[in-house]
Amino acid sequence: MNTRSVGVQVGVRERILETALDEFYASGFHGATMRNIANSAGCSAANVYNHFENKSELLVEILRRASDEQFTVTRNALRKAGPHPADRWRAAVVAHSLYTARNPRACLVANSELRYLGEVDRKRVVGSRDAQEQLFVDIARDGVDQGLFSVPHVHQAVTAVLTMCAGIPLWFRADGPLSAQQVADDYGVYALNLVGYRTS
User: Fold this and answer.
1) Statement: the pTM of the whole predicted model exceeds 0.85
2) Residues 6+ apart with CB under 8 A from 36
3) Among candidate residues 161, 159, 153, the one with its CA nearest the CA of residue 191
4) Tens digit of pLDDT for each residue in 29-80?
5) Which of 108, 155, 161 is nearest to 134 (CA)?
């Protein structure tokens, strides 16, 4: 297969994934059909099956990408944040929130449709999600150990913050009064308040 053919195939695959995300977002996992995905992608159902075995495989790929990307942007933000737990906590929450605000469809589908995957497929998705949660846990524990954060249950606090961020796609609009960056920055402040951080 020549380079041009490979490029065409990659383009078709990406178009199928983007269309599948639209379908899952609009209709949910059970409401979406391979036929509708194919029609919206401008290709045959057979072509969709050439790239993906079934709907579950499509959903796995969409969720895995979203989780990996969000984990990567959060980790990159932490590399620039410095050693102070408050700075690291805020940086992680801002990065996580910003990704959510800028990728609302993928994040909403990830949070609402993951339950429809079987155990094996689910394990393929949750690795990055678990690793990202552990980043937050480690930062919060560090803050508690240094006497900077006042929170009795670290895991519960992390769950509260990540759940708060997961709700952004339910209300945020790109054409609304606040930009994605403003929302993310606000959430960084909320998250510091939630763990009881005080500057003095």
Assistant:
1) yes
2) 23, 27
3) 161
4) 999 989 999 998 888 888 889 899 889 999 999 998 998 999 999 999 999 9
5) 155
